[in-house]
Amino acid sequence: MRVLSAWHQYAFVIRQLTARELKRKYARSSLGILWSILNPLLSMAVLSLIFLNMFRRSIENYPIYYLTGYLVWQTFTLATTSAMTALPDNKPLLLKVRFPMDIFLLARVYTAGVNLVYSLIAYAVMLIVFGISFKWTMLLAPVYLFLLFCFSLGMSYLLAVACVFFGDVRHLYTVLLTLWMYCSALFYPVSQLSEFMQTVVRMNPIYAYISSLRGAVLDGTLPSGLVWLQMLCFGILTLLLGRTVFKFYRKKIVEFL
């Protein structure tokens, strides 16, 4: 009973921290949380205007093709970049209140999940607008997104530890994300790349989630066995690794802060 009571309290704290993060994010915005809906739509509109003619023949329903990849990428980057600085940002609260440090990371990853839910509202509307019919493979989308969140949380653990001891990690990660984005095939077809680059992209963890979700929504197809293995390994193993590293450095993190 004590364990259940403690986790109930922790869940409450996570919800409160998430609400705080959302309020802080949209504090000076007139539209507030609506930007979670407008951002993917505006990005889709801009990229579609730029690349639609270029990829019209090779990609059917290009706006949805891009929007699907963008939502996965946005969720991952929002989760990891915000969670990376969660411990230094909450230093006063972390040192005064006896809560598990994980809560601060979980709250920021959870915030990215809430942001995704709002974005999916816009996504559902766009599917209707572009006449994308329902396919039973869409029912597996929550599985892909769950594994994405496992991978994001695992990366968040690793980045949070690194950021405490090496502050420059946040700047290096920003540069890495730029390269990572271009290797994730957000706005171009992988088939137009050289064989070597196709291999590089297909080894990219984020592309496994993007391609699986695109296949489910646009083509009604399932991932291959290799892609399933990639998603499971990247998601579960990264989470276990991140959690293990975080536990190992827990005391040192408190001492360093």
UniProtKB/TrEMBL annotation:
Source organism superkingdom: Bacteria
Record GO terms (molecular function): ABC-type transporter activity
UniProt KW keywords: Cell inner membrane, Cell membrane, Membrane, Transmembrane, Transmembrane helix, Transport
Occurrences of domain ABC transmembrane type-2 (ranges): 31-252
Membrane-spanning ranges: 31-52, 64-88, 109-132, 144-165, 172-190, 227-246
An example Gene Ontology CC term for this record: plasma membrane
Subcellular location: Cell inner membrane; Cell membrane
Protein's name according to its UniProt entry: Transport permease protein
